[in-house]
Amino acid sequence: MENLWKKESTPKSPIYMDIFDGIELVPIPNVKFGLQKNDLISTQLRHKGDQKFGENLWSEAMEYYNKSLRFAIKAENASLAYANRAACFLHLKMFDKCLADIEMSKRVNCPLKEVMIKLDKCKADCLKRMRRNYQKETHDQAGLSYDCDVNIPCLADVLKIQYNEKFGRHIVAKCDIPVGKVILVENACFSATLSGPLTGCTTCQRLRMNFIACENCTIAMFCDEMCKESAFHKYDCNVIYDHDTINNGQFQMMARTIFFGLEAFGSVFDEIVEATEELKENYVPQTMIDMQSKYRLFLTLPTPTLKEIEKHELMCKAKSLFTILIKLTTVNGVFDTVEKQRFLMHLVTKHVIITSENAINAKHNNIQRVATLGLIFPLFNHVCVPNLLSYSSSDQQICTTLRPVQAGQRLFVSYTLDEVSTKFGFPCTCEKCDPKHSTSDVTNLLSDPGYAFLQRNRNNNLLNQKNRQNIKRKCIDLLNKHGRLWFPELEFVLDVYIKCELHEEI
Asked: Tens digits of per-residue pLDDT, 420-442?
């Protein structure tokens, strides 16, 4: 990696060095493709779904109907897949989605009379149940506690991004912010499914949606037309990067960072990359409302100090990805000369390093393992005892104030569960690693009636909404009064508050 972005000196013109020379790959990666659409397979998958449906396994049945839809060619098979999936949504009491699938089944214009009869019966049953016990579906989509920043909409306007020599790039508060305020709701710029029994949206990874299938492949499904029109899938339609789910997801995410750059800058791609490379990590984004500004920020995201073994692993991964990409007609047509392919070698390596460092692996509904990569979240600095709680929901990364933040104070998250952070190449000097509290701070907390209340109610069921809200209010009050500095006795309050926010048991 010492040769990254270095060029060879030749009599005619300098080109980038071949940084993959000497990197052996066993086995040599090759482009793999999914199966072609096939109505026989579609029918077989639907019948397997019917078997699961008969066993009252609604989610498993729905997964087979989704697969059936991906293989369907004839309108009849697509219509039946939508209709049967609607019945699953009905039994799962997801009434809005049930009605949506009924309409999607009808729009296919299937001529089968029995399908229309089935749909009308399902709709009547759905409307009857809705009138009896309807609860509007919620998607747990968090919202900012303040107005959003006009130029960086995922960030609350009470924060600003800045840079100085001492702290590097960081985020500070423009005013005092109390506990429990949502200050970041960032949809992932890139995401991929790494494991799990359910298939999510190819673009945003959401589950149990009214999926529509790609017309050209049997791999991709999308939760709506917006996701379907994503700029990325057209580059790797029907492509399987690796038969291992984790490797496939990682390669897919890394490949799509390349596709993002191609969409953002087209023919001047290489010029922009070279110019942005000079900015390094002191680049402060002024806006995040277009692909060009997002890609510039991606290129300047933090990169780690790597050990030799880590360098070799990332170089192998980069060469594998390059070997696959250069065989895709959508990529090869752009990088069609030796000079351009050498540039792509370096670009892929840079993207692999950035993605490996900044992607977050999180559980999705306690079922899926999903990798997400946002562009603003990595700008928060690390401490072992942060003033922000960060967590993933669907393809979003959400940050909520965990302790009171004063105007001008930096905001921190924790990137590691270690007692002392050495992962990022510096000794941590946070309040846990270098305590700053006094005895009176501890005494004031322990003598607070709110602390005694939490101790008395520590075994209450937090899954009960009334209990959770009551205990959460006590935690916020205690943290606002006593949480300016960290000390060990505060951990109990922080732990209870976090469990309230994440709907977990104490």
From this structure: 334 445 566 778 777 788 899 89
For residues 198 and 60, membership in a common domain is answered with: no
> So what's the pLDDT on residue 416?
59
Which candidate, 189, 315, 190, places its Cα nearest to that of 253? Answer: 190
Structure-token pair, residue 471: 């205990």
pLDDT tens-place string over residues 47-68: 999 999 999 999 999 999 999 9
Contact between 219 and 398 (Cβ < 8 Å): no
Q: Which residues pair with 156 in a beta bridge?
A: 148
* Mean pLDDT of the 144-160 span: 96
Checking if the pLDDT of 98 tops 80, the result is yes
Residues forming a β-bridge with 190: 373
Domain count for the chain: 3
Q: Kindly state the average pLDDT of the residues 96-119.
A: 87
Distance between CA atoms of residues 390 and 401, nearest Å: 9
**Residue 474 and residue 454 in contact, taking contact as beta carbons nearer than 8 Å:** yes
Residues 206, 298 within the same domain: yes
**Does residue 230 lie in a domain region?**
yes
Write the Ramachandran bin of 56: left for phi over 0, alpha for psi from -120 to 50, otherwise beta: left
Q: Are residues 298 and 193 in the same domain?
A: yes
**Please, what is the Cα angle at 267 between 263 and 271, to 5 degrees?**
100
Q: Give the per-residue pLDDT at 456.
A: 87
Cβ atoms < 10 Å from Cβ of 440: 8
249 found inside a domain = yes
**CA 492 to CA 306: how far, in whole Å?**
36
Rounded Cα distance between 388 and 410, Å, is 10
pLDDT, tens digit, for every residue of 199-252? 889 998 888 899 999 999 999 999 988 898 887 899 999 999 998 888 999 999
- Name which of 325, 317, 298 is nearest 235 in CA terms: 325
Q: Are residues 270 and 194 in the same domain?
A: yes
Selection from 412, 393, 372 nearest residue 143 by Cα = 393
Domain membership flag for residue 356:
yes
Q: State which of 347, 364, 381 marks the end of a domain.
A: 364
Tokens matching residue 304: 């780690």
Q: Are 97 and 122 in contact (CB under 8 A)?
A: no
Tell me, what amino acid is at 397?
Q
Distance CA 377, CA 453 (A): 35
Q: Which of residues 312, 343, 364 is at a domain's end?
A: 364
Lookup: tokens for 31: 């482009």
Instruction: Note down the domain range covering 122.
Output: 39-133
